[in-house]
Design goal:
Layout lengths: L2 H4 L22 H9 L7 H25 L9 H22 L1
Helix pairs in contact: 3-4
Length: 101
């Protein structure tokens, strides 16, 4: 499978013109895969920014759940400071992943 196949519509449909514009083709296979896998590599800056935002939120939610599941022995963690820590950890993890490819 080459790039040419990745640029083909993932869910093609027959559509007419939209207000004089070219017919819509739907998402490409690459766009669909990037959205589903939360990988901001579609080539569309706006779509990639939305995917990166969702990736950050998903990562922070997973970290937050794990942090709350580990019972804080001295009682210093509240849900607020735990969320702040989860966001910071998510940002660090995502930055590391970008750096290492």
């Amino acid at each position: 499978m080459g790039i040419r196949n990745a640029e083909m519509p993932a869910m093609p449909f027959e559509g007419g013109e939209n207000n004089g514009e070219a017919p819509a083709k739907g998402l490409t296979k690459r766009e669909h895969a990037c959205i589903h896998l939360r990988i901001p590599d579609t080539g569309d800056k706006e779509l990639d920014a939305l995917i990166a935002k969702a990736q950050r939120l998903d990562t922070a939610k997973a970290l937050y759940s794990g942090m709350l599941a580990c019972h804080d022995q001295d009682g210093t963690w509240s849900s607020d400071n735990c969320w702040d820590q989860a966001i910071q950890q998510a940002d660090g993890l995502i930055a590391d992943l970008k750096r290492t490819g």
